[in-house]
């Protein structure tokens, strides 16, 4: 890719900001509630905003039943319910609540993979891991998401901001953000589940505001220069050591690794400390970057931490399409979906 290459991309007239997909991750819950209150106060500046800059922002409280109970989910993890197989499959009267809710959200924000889907989904999450602010996406060549990431890094220099890439196909992508034409999870921590910390909430609020500002700039015709960005591509998950018979864990994250998300882990470095005091080293063949270290919600999923490779990705300069270019894009998008 040439450094000075310019990509022309469709406008982003509809954006969804979702909180409470996990009902006990409270920064997103309280932020979306606040945004819903602010939505009722349309300012004179917003009324006079240029039509080309205007963005329709849909605020969604994704899992209201789990929020009421301050639990991650009621029956099953909502953020694993958005594969095409689940969304297009049969649903019985006794289906888990989150399956039914996923279908409702897909009708509201999708359908997934269709021209009618919202242009961008930003799904808000908290982690108990020491990860700062991360954008998590399924593509490492979605120039919209990567430029938003670059913009957040520039506008929020005091917050560690990283981009995590999960190499999963559109068909198998499973989270709420995959319903939009573009989408990512905004994951911020550390914050205990069921708790809201002011500094974490503030970082999320500023991150969302900067994201929406970027969309308005883009829609107004601003050209965003390309360049290199760092991307952490997920390689694998590592489970805790377990008793062969009972399957209960027999070790915890080693103290030298705890809270050191995105610090390079070399073969031989301490990984776990058994409950009897023995150190278990990392036995991988290459140095990798750990993240989601000791995430509370992942004990049930058998994940002690995830490992990633860090890469430099070249992103092109971008601008919004003209009306003529937009019409050609819609025809091309529709033809691809029909195939």
The pLDDT mean sits at 93
Q: Helical proportion?
A: 25-40%
The count of helical stretches stands at: 8
Rounded to the nearest angstrom, the radius of gyration is 21 Å
Euclidean distance between termini CA atoms: 28 Å
Residue stretches low in confidence (pLDDT < 50, at least 5 long) are none
Taking strands numbered 1, 2, ... along the chain, how are they ordered across the largest sheet?
A: 3-2-4-7-5-6-8-13-12
Order of helices and strands: EEHHEHHHEEHEEHEEEEEEEH
Largest sheet: 9 strands, mixed
Features:
27% helix, three-stranded antiparallel sheet, nine-stranded mixed sheet, alpha/beta, 339 residues
What is this entry, summarized?
Helix content is 27%, strand content 24%. The model has no long low-confidence stretch (mean pLDDT 93). By secondary structure, it is α/β, with parallel strands linked by helices.
Characterize the structure shown.
By secondary structure, the protein is α/β, with parallel strands linked by helices. 27% of the residues lie in helices and 24% in strands. The protein has eight helices and 14 strands. The chain has helices at residues 26-39, 44-47, 64-69, 84-88, 97-109, 143-155, 198-219, 323-338, and strands at residues 6-9, 14-19, 56-61, 120-126, 132-137, 161-165, 182-189, 227-238, 251-253, 270-274, 279-281, 289-291, 305-315, 317-320. It has a nine-stranded mixed sheet, with helices on one face. It has a three-stranded antiparallel sheet with strand order 9-10-11, with no helix packed on it. Strand 5 (132-137), helix 6 and strand 6 form a beta-alpha-beta unit. Helix 1 crosses helix 7 and helix 6 (143-155) packs across helix 7. It is globular. The relative contact order is 0.17.
